[in-house]
Amino acid sequence: MKEIIKKAVIPVAGFGTRLLPATKSQPKEMLPIVDKPAVQYVVEEAIKSGAENILFITGRGKRAIEDYFDYAVELEKELEDKGKTDLLDEVRNISEMAKFFYVRQKIARGLGDAINHARGFIDDEYFSVLLADDIIDSEIPCLKQMINVFRNYRGMILAVMEVPRDKTNIYGIVNGKKISDRVYEVSDLIEKPEPEEALSNIAVIGRYILNANIFNAIEETKPGKGGEIQITDAIKSLIGREKIFAYEFKGMRYDVGEKIGFLKANIAYALKREDLGSELKEYLKKIVEETT
Ligand code: G1P
Q1: Does ligand 1 have an atom closer than 6 angstroms to the CB of 174?
Q2: Whose CA is nearest to atom 7 of ligand 1?
Q3: Separation in Å, CA 251 to CA 5, 65, 105, 142, 281
Q4: Distance between CA atoms of residues 94 and 65, nearest Å
């Protein structure tokens, strides 16, 4: 099994119902966090972590993502003619960041099924999966942190973080033995358990290092939570046959697939910007004072 991780898979077929009506006719992944579509943050994380080939698992209504990572010929010509070279470089760079591939998930059968669409793209090797709803702000990209852990442990790795007990039913929940600072050996996994049946409050966040053995496991996985083929169940079925680790990443995670996470990410990223931060901070102080 090849152990150099150069391929990333980004599932983007989901409907984005938690952000309706904004997502009625546009992909949630294209909604901006400040001035970049959410998906670009995830793509940049993958690239900074060594990914060269990126496969999007798309679906109907997601063509704007393909267009975004393609050349924008007319726009580029316009920017060139007007001498707007900075913008031109920025726009052109987006399409040249990596090699992009696309495959469509025709029926929404769940995250496990979506990832199974990467089968033809992955050889006998390890690869990463990044869920576009999870944007992680950290000094070292989350996936890069995981690859560093991978170099020591050589197994599948799931990014995890502690969540409040009453929130276990929106995450995959891990049970395991802590084997070093921030690393657990996974002994059990449950998708979205109610708090009373949760094994712990350690939740899987949307970053995974998997290998090609996941595909047969997915094929054998029956529909689980919500009637969908869950990646959590497929990974669970490999416990005992594969080494599976959970890694508590360093960084701040935003769930930009829901309204409050989307708003928080916009504010947090804008506050960090040199051109926007101080004015926004003043404004926030003012409206907080006025409304409390
Ligand atoms: C998915 C996974 C879940 C994981 C979560 C992280 O759920 O199925 O195990 O904890 O992503 O964001 P979703 O949020 O897509 O329902």
Answers
A1: no
A2: 171
A3: 21, 26, 31, 7, 22
A4: 11
pLDDT computed for residue 166 by the predictor: 96
Ligand 1 contact via 113 beta carbon (within 6 Å): no
Nearest CA among 150, 169, 171 for reference residue 160: 171
**What pLDDT score was predicted for residue 16?**
86
Instruction: Say if ligand 1 is within 6 A of residue 204 CB.
Output: yes
Contacts of 110 (CB under 8 A, 6+ apart): 223, 224, 226, 228, 229, 230, 231
Q: Consecutive sets of 10 residues in the chain, 292 residues long: mean pLDDT of each?
A: 92 91 92 96 97 96 93 92 92 91 94 97 97 97 98 96 96 96 96 95 98 97 96 98 97 97 98 97 95 83
Which CATH topology does 7-270 take? Spore Coat Polysaccharide Biosynthesis Protein SpsA; Chain A (3.90.550)
Q: Against a cut of 0.90, is the pTM above it?
A: yes
Residue with tokens 């996941």: 214
pLDDT on residue 205: 97
Q: Where are the domains of the chain?
A: 7-270
Name the residue of 12, 204, 249 whose CB sits within 8 Å of the most ligand 1 atoms, as the mutation to test its pocket: 204
